[in-house]
Amino acid sequence: MNFTEKQIENWKVYEKVRESGKYKMFSEEAMKATGLNEKDYWFVMNHYIGLKEAAESEGRG
Question: What pLDDT band is residue 61 in, cutting at 50, 70 and 90?
Answer without folding.
Answer: low
